[in-house]
Amino acid sequence: MSAELDPLYAAPLAEFVAVRKGLAAAAKAAGDRASATAIAQRARPTPSAWAANQLWRQARPLWDRLVDATRAVGRGDLAAVGEQRATLAALRARAIELAQAAAQPASEAMLAKLDTNLRALAA
User: Fold this and answer.
1) With bands split at pLDDT 50, 70 and 90, how would you rate the model's confidence at 62?
2) What backbone torsions phi and psi does residue 77 show, to the nearest 5 degrees?
3) What does R_g of the chain's alpha carbons equal in angstroms?
4) How confident is the model at residue 4 (pLDDT cuts 50, 70, 90)?
5) Is residue 39 within a helix (H) or strand (E), and if so which, with residue range?
6) 20-35 pLDDT, tens digit each
7) Could you give the CA distance from residue 32 to residue 51 in angstroms, rounded to a whole number?
8) How high is the pLDDT of residue 3?
9) Shortest CA distance to 95 belongs to which of 8, 87, 45?
10) Which helix (H) or strand (E) holds 80?
């Protein structure tokens, strides 16, 4: 089902409900009631979760750099702390761009939650 859900999580957050309804209707029309139900039950992500997902999809090199730097810090390489911070800043800037392109507000509260999400996911 993950391939079926790709359009759902690639869409702007404001379009999530409409895309979810369309995908569920398509699955139902194809006779797959189980998938239709599963799709219809998908929760709309929070703005920070949506932003993290968009970064994974559209800024993968930065995402991978954050994971590498975080792993290095975890191994005790304190020299990687600077790379981790710089990458988090770059991801934050890219998240603002992606939010603006999708007409999605990028409040300080959302960006703080995004930072927490990114740090946790990279760990």
Assistant:
1) very high
2) -80, 90
3) 17
4) confident
5) helix 33-40
6) 999 999 999 999 999 9
7) 30
8) 77
9) 87
10) helix 80-101
